[in-house]
Known about the structure:
21 helices; alpha/beta; 768 residues
Amino acid sequence: MRTRYLALLGAAVLASAGVALAPHARAAAGLPYQDPNLPVATRVTDLLGRMSLDEKLGQMTQAERPNASNADVTTYRLGSVFSGGGAAPSPNTATGWADMYDAYQRAAQATPLQIPIIYGADAVHGHNNVVGATIFPHNIGLGASRDPALVQRIGRATAEEVSGTGVDWTFSPCLCVARNDRWGRTYESFGEKPELPTAMATIIDGLQGSSLNGPASVLATAKHYVADGGTTGGRDQGDAQITEAELRSIHLPPFQEAVRRNVGSVMISFSSWNGQKLHGSSYLINTVLKGELGFTGFVVTDYNGIDQLDGQPGFTGAEVRQAINAGIDMVMVSSAWKSFIDTLRAEVQAGRITQARIDDANRRILTKKFELGLFEKPLTDRSYTGTVGSAAHREIAREAVRKSQVLLKNANRVLPLARDNNKIFVAGKSADNIGYQSGGWTVTWQGGSGAITPGTTILQGIRAGAGANTTVTYSQNGSGIDSSYKVAVAVVGETPYAEGQGDRTGSMSLDATDLNTLNTLRASGVPVVVVLVSGRPMDIADQVGNWAGLLASWLPGTEGAGVADVLYGAYKPTGKLPVTWMQSASQQPINDGDGKASLFPFGFGLTYDDSTTPPTTPPTTTPPTTPPTTTPPTTTPPTTTPPTTRPPTTPPTTTPPTTPPTTGACQVTYAVNDWGSGFTASVTIKNTGTAAVNGWTLKFTFPGNQRVTQGWSATWSQSGADVTATDLSWNGTLAPGASTDIGFNGSYSGGNPRPTSFSLNGRACTAG
């Protein structure tokens, strides 16, 4: 046995040098866990029975690429390797990544049991660590699109690019609910209300595919569990000082939806809940996530997360014991992973962590590896390598940019810009800067400036979209403008940041560079249209009265031509604010329904008047075959003065039919998790008829003393015991066989019996 082990170790050394393993270096085939025809559970049980304690501890350890060699994977039986932000191979190309990944997998194949690694990366808006990849808008822009189907397609495109580099696990999506825009991760949130990240959890389906072992399927991660967007002061890694009812009503629903969509992993937040670090919370991980929600995947820490439990650097037995016993299955460690393994081993040998807990963690991890098909296909599927940055994926990204633009002001119909016979002046530090328009988590952790990756800047898009006899002049600081120009477009906003480096505890205003540029443009007397490139609302109330137009572009990524598409009117703006726009930074936190007067409310967004003359030159790309999912609002565009009263906070939704449909039927499934003095209800509405349902209202009656306290994915109301839920704009249409999931938190006294009858648009439904 020792001779065979040394031979395998020697094979690992060859593997680390990129040398393919000869057939005799592989373990004997034919063991039950190696049989793909057996059920996954059977294979996992067989493999667990063959593993030593050290092999099990290795599976629970995830080391960072710069600090773990190929030989380390073999020697320490590491279960996972990851690339943090910017931890890329050299050369940083799709092929370079695939070569690196395959070398690690060959090292794993040199171990006696040949357990493959699972490789993780932060592909959070495309495969953003890879130069040349398609960079999609950050989540806040996707939330503005209100288009879950588009988000699912983005997940699929991302999965193809990730698969083409070998990586099989992405730390995405972030399902946080950003409640304070000072938070440096606000742009990673789809919005401030739980229904937005809940709806956009469709990205999980795109990433994971119809089955994990299908082509170009990668494991998704719901993060950061839970309430990282609710910390006091919007402080990253801070303390969410909120009640359990608020945690459950605001921050938990998106994770509940992720579990329903069979998300493969959940990442724990660095933050705390009422003083307790989430990495050590058995109640929230074991009881709520794995128990109430029924999560069957594996739980992973954030970067060195458990090392924060005692507030001191260095792993301790107490920290490791608390975290593993709290339900964490895999531990992400940058460099001190050997120390972690030693500490974990000591805790198990001392009986402070049971063998059963170790086996449970391994069972969860190995199950996903088997489901991904890694045992049968451990190496990169290079048929997808060519999809990285492909034209097809960039067109999806351009569509996403168009749909994410939110028009906030359009005085005297300064927009859309005439494509022909026009004279346009473009200025601003973000106009011709791929790095700025992509934001953080792009090539490097904090992002960068300039041409950091291939793409189209907003300026390039404006120039390419200009028609006959149109002049486009650019000066970054605005110098050279004169009254001969018909319009000035100022592309200004934030420079890149990520995580805590983006926390803004003081001013949230435009910087001096931007203000000077804007002053130069205004002094010319030319109408100024501001294109705001930012990861959150900015404090602009003092300036917006001087602007003719304002377009919130968020962080659009590499396809800046999508911004130009909207500026020229090739596509009307359809985006709606996913967050409430403050009148001043002193209002933070400000959220829909809190009674604070906003500059622009949640859900606000203008469009171009239908009578606007269409562009004289056809657009350069084919319009999408599916019309926008949101209905343009009827709100009157603001004048040069920002609105002093709040526009309607709820855009019009489809009116439910006044009479029941003549055809069709429905089925309603009602499931409840009771907790303390309250409960969470998950309701699935399915159209089992033969005709589409266009606009719906669900009604039922509580049989006990129950109250709806907060709902999501529908407009909820209650009169006495009668409850009504009405569709939102994005889920109002149900094709035959389609379903939608809605839910609410409630309170009760004297028992919580379930309602037994439901009606949809006046017709009785079958209770599922």
